[in-house]
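Report of the visiting student (M.T.), summer placement. My assignment was to run the structure pipeline on a short list of targets and document each run. The first record concerns DDE Tnp4 domain-containing protein.
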Amino acid sequence: MARFSLSLRRNAERTKRIVVVLTIWLQLCNIVSSLLILLASEASLFSYRPRVRRYLHNFYANRDYLRRILHDNDESCISMVRMNRQAFFKLCEMLESMGGLKTTKNMLIDEQVGIFLHIIAHHVKNRVIGRNFRRSGETVSRCFHNVLNAVMHLQELLFKKPEPIPTNSLDHRWRWFKNCLGALDGTYIRVNVPIKDKARFRTRKGDIATNMLGVCTPNMQFVYVLPGWEGSVADGRVLRDAITRRHGLKVPHGCYYLVDAGYTNCEGFLAPFRGQRDDFYINPIVEEEPITAIDPTNAWTNWRIGLAREMFNEWQTSRQIEN
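After the run finished, the structure tokens were exported:
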């Protein structure tokens, strides 16, 4: 009996050792397996290549539309981008050499400029341009802003600068207004705004619009535009903001713009009125600080009276000669 119990005890200890050994072995296997999985996953980071459909960029097919509208003849070029081929290629050269416009991997300078001019000439939507030129909407948008930035770098060279009416002008409409730079006025452009902002954008006629200031030369070329003001704001307030901005409207002393009766008659801005003649002369342009305030003065009022009298007397003289 003692031998049997001793044998059972030895078998139990042996079984216990075997279980411990197997447990240790399984744990070692799990550790080795985890280590191998970790090494395999780390190696796959450098060897894995996703199966992505390759984008086939047909360069010549994408430029086919550009060739048809710009390179074939001047008639189609003028119709699509509002300039002939010589002017178009000159603009491309200026934007590349002086404006900083760069050729991309898949798009040349002429295509970028063509997209930009096509959009602003016909107010074409992004999706239409993308379909015609076979480009994505993001590419068209990025191209437009790149060309726009290049054009802004050429503003000193491309933008029209106002020139005063000379003393010996023969234009019967403008010869009275010596040193006049042009005319300006405000206009309302209807917009959609949130409900909470409609009261500020409501005009005196009840429309929801923005008050935009436009300034042009005597030959109707715009030299300055200021959008963004609410429709309820008076024209004089918009003008005051324009001349006080850092890069706003510049009016040299001795020059002026023609304005309507909604603006204050003051130095730099001649408003209409009924008056009588008195000789007065405005000094020519001098290199001084531009006008930055809208304040009526007696000198400017007297000059306006003199200008009106001079125009009336000249008109009477011309009528007498005709009779």
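Residues 250 and 290 are 6 Å apart (CA to CA). Residues 44-57, 275-287 have pLDDT under 50 and may be disordered. I thank the supervising group for their guidance throughout the placement.
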